[in-house]
Amino acid sequence: MTETEILSIFKKTEALLTGHFLLTSGRHSDRYFQCAKVLQYPEHAEKLCKMIANNFKGAEIDTVIAPAIGGLVVGQEVARQLNKRFIFAEREDKKLSLRRGFSLDENEKVLVCEDVVTTGGSVFEVIDIVKSKKAEVVGVGFIVDRSNGKVNFKYPQFSTLKMEVVSYLPDECPLCKEDIELVKPGSRKVK
Ligand code: ZN
User: Fold this and answer.
1) Cα(179) to centroid(ligand 1), Å
2) Which of 13, 101, 106, 132 has its Cα between 20 and 30 A from that of 87?
3) Over the stretch 71-120, which tens digit does the pLDDT of each residue have?
4) Which candidate, 163, 157, 130, places its Cα nearest to that of 33?
5) CA 87 to centroid of ligand 1, rounded, Å
6) Residue 20 Cα, ligand 1 centroid: separation in angstroms?
7) Is the pLDDT of residue 43 over 50?
8) Angle (CA) 52 33 148, round 5°
9) Is the separation of the CB atoms in 68 and 90 below 8 Å?
10) pLDDT at 120
């Protein structure tokens, strides 16, 4: 899929909204992205994850791992397409860890998946888990790179789309100056 095709799916499914948004950080932005909105449709999840699966097709992979909750759909779908095992890490006392009897063997080849990467915090945590088990990170695949290519995991990495996050302090927000209604994503006012 081309960048234009991907963007059109994001817009059609309202994963990508344009307007004037109050972000959880308190900053304002003209765009808001919610990956779950596109991944709720299996056909779109399949197509996007196919790009990730294809990118790592030549690599030796035993297992796909993802951080819950965001990475679950992507990890499962990429693993399904590659016909590999899928496990996930989840937060316990704010720290990601393997639970539910999940484990990794020494030297096991692992592909890390995620939906959206902004600072990459969760992915870095999952990489640390893989390394702590003496398993091997083969690469990192994710749907959207909101750092616009700035995040570097130091392993082969692939995203279906790179996006720049432009946000403003409320005092400096040009959208406020234009008197465009400010909405909190998830509220009914979002169009
Ligand atoms: Zn504003």
Assistant:
1) 8
2) 13
3) 999 999 999 999 999 999 999 999 999 999 999 999 999 999 999 999 99
4) 163
5) 40
6) 6
7) yes
8) 60
9) yes
10) 94
Q: How many domains are there within the chain?
A: 1
29 C-alpha to center of ligand 1: Å? 7
Q: How far is the CA of 58 from the centre of ligand 1 (A)?
A: 46
What is the 3-state secondary structure of 149-190?
A: CCCCCCCCEEEEEECECCEECHHHCHHHHCCCCCECCCCCCC
Query: From ligand 1's centre to the CA of 65, what distance in Å?
Result: 38
Q: How far is the CA of 188 from the centre of ligand 1 (A)?
A: 18
Alpha helices (H) in the chain, listed in sequence order = 3-12, 35-39, 42-55, 72-82, 121-132, 174-177
Take residue 156 and report the two structure tokens written for it: 């082969």
How far apart CA 147 and CA 53 sit, in angstroms, is 21
- C-alpha 130 to ligand 1 mean position (Å): 41
Q: Which domain holds residue 87?
A: 3-177
Other Cβ atoms within 10 Å of 42 Cβ, number: 10
**In-domain check, residue 65:** yes
156: domain CATH number is 3.40.50.2020
